[in-house]
Amino acid sequence: MILAYRRIALVTGGIKNVGNGIALALGEARAIVYVTARSITEKNVKGITKAGGKGIAVVCDHENDSEVKAVFELIKKEEGRLDILVNNAWGGYKRLRNRKEYAGFKWKAPI
Fold it and tell me: Rounded CA gap, 106 and 111, in Å?
């Protein structure tokens, strides 16, 4: 049996809400989907595999550049390429919850 060409995808922040929905849809499209989150386990990506793809959980805090680099190096080593990147992770919630530490935070501040 010959398997169809599989796309390699990375969904950052893919265990909740929109990111999770996108990761599941990519699974339905038979993609190999790497999913990152600060706290993620293989249990979080079972739905992707059940949907027909292959879910791979990778712990990553996207506010840490070395962790982000390690994710891309892992994908390059294991797959040799990346076809789809969904940048869904956002660390801004920390600033919204901790007004003392981030007193100057404003929604329209430059990235």
Answer: 11
